[in-house]
Design a protein that fits this description.
45% of the residues lie in helices and 16% in strands. It has 10 helices and 10 strands. α9 links the parallel β7 and β8. The longest helix has 29 residues. It is globular, with a radius of gyration of 21 Å. The structure holds S-adenosylmethionine.
Length: 327
């Protein structure tokens, strides 16, 4: 029998659990959509044979391994290559012609999960002959997803499905050219990984990536409440160059957010927006927010600093290269 016959009590205990996760480890899920969080907690409770959320709180505080498992549950990693093929078709047709005119291109794939979306972008960039002047920053808060993204290994079965998406997205090569078969696995062509920088970044807590020309954050904001969505839109608006593109998932929109006026719609159905020159009306305090927290985020913070210095190094390299006439 379900321990909870009173939803208010259950919700209260969930709030306390999320407070504990934030206070102890610096992972802040307090602004995530409640229904999805509740499902994830219940899933972990049933695996661990736990009946009460108060017991989950105790386990989270005293058992780091258990916390990591719960953290994994909170990261819904569903993804595929060339997901929503018409979006990629639109990107090729409506966005890449403008990107081609830039001396170099910075792409941020936020909430990249296990890498399928990142490699899809890398393939398109390569096919448009833009790879050598493009840097792709791929971030997620989930260490586990990022490790698998870096490996770039997929099952043959899923690659067959991705091949159909690729063709629908207007792919122009034989999709198998991008993989090497290894038993029943397909390993992504390492040359596609060359200009991809994978790093931990938590959209709810960490800072901006400057001077991006395009940001993809698809099927991530759907898990956030309105306030956190606003905060993340501000982060993106600060990170994008004027004229840069913001791409969201099919069920997400910037309309009704605090940043709505800062974007023009490029393609409504594909959720592609272009940052305009209007001054931002929201009060911007992202840079002043200290990256809170103990243990885990301190580790994350190190990685972010590390990534920032890598970005600076790469910027120097790119401007060095573009100084030699690459356009
Ligand atoms: C459903 S997947 C979407 C993957 C990919 N963007 C796509 O559309 O196929 C959502 C991803 O968002 C990540 N995510 C959720 N909250 C996040 C946060 N606060 N910061 C960074 N990534 C987050 C999850 O870990 C997960 O990998």
């Amino acid at each position: 029998m379900d321990y909870y016959d009173n939803e208010d009590n259950e919700n209260l205990e969930i709030e306390l659990l999320l407070e504990a996760m934030n206070a102890k480890y610096g992972y802040d899920f307090r602004s995530y959509a409640k229904a999805s969080i509740k499902r994830r907690i219940r899933h972990r409770m049933s695996i661990a044979g736990i009946k009460k959320i108060t017991d989950v709180i105790e386990r989270v505080i005293y058992d780091r391994e258990f916390f990591i498992e719960l953290l994994g549950d909170f990261s819904i990693s569903t993804t595929e290559m060339f997901r929503d093929p018409t979006f990629f078709q639109a990107l090729r047709k409506n966005v890449f012609p403008a990107l081609k005119r830039l001396p170099f291109i910075k792409v941020w794939v936020a909430g990249c999960s296990t890498g399928e979306e990142v490699y899809s972008i890398a393939i398109m960039v390569k096919e448009e002959n833009l790879y050598d002047k493009t840097m792709i920053y791929a971030t997620d808060y989930s260490d586990k997803s990022l490790s698998s993204a870096k490996e770039g290994v997929f099952s043959i079965k899923s690659v067959k499905k991705y091949a159909a998406n690729y063709i629908e997205a207007g792919g122009i090569q034989s999709f198998s050219n991008y993989f090497t078969a290894k038993a029943d696995l397909a390993v992504i062509d390492p040359s596609l990984r060359k200009n991809i920088l994978f790093s931990i970044h938590n959209l709810a807590a960490d800072g901006i990536f400057g001077e991006m020309n395009i940001i993809l954050c698809r099927n991530v904001l759907i898990y956030f409440n309105r306030e956190l969505q606003n905060k993340v839109f501000e982060l993106f608006t600060e990170s994008l160059e004027a004229g840069g593109y913001l791409c969201l998932g099919s069920k997400e929109t910037i309309r009704l957010s605090r940043c709505s006026d800062n974007y023009d719609e490029v393609l409504k159905d594909e959720k592609i927006y272009k940052k305009n020159m209007r001054p931002c009306s929201y009060s911007q305090d992202i840079d002043n927010n200290p990256v809170v927290t103990p243990e885990f985020v301190i580790k994350g913070g190190e990685l972010i600093r590390d990534m920032r210095s890598k970005i600076e190094e790469l910027d120097c390299l790119i401007s060095g290269v573009s100084g030699k006439g690459v356009t």
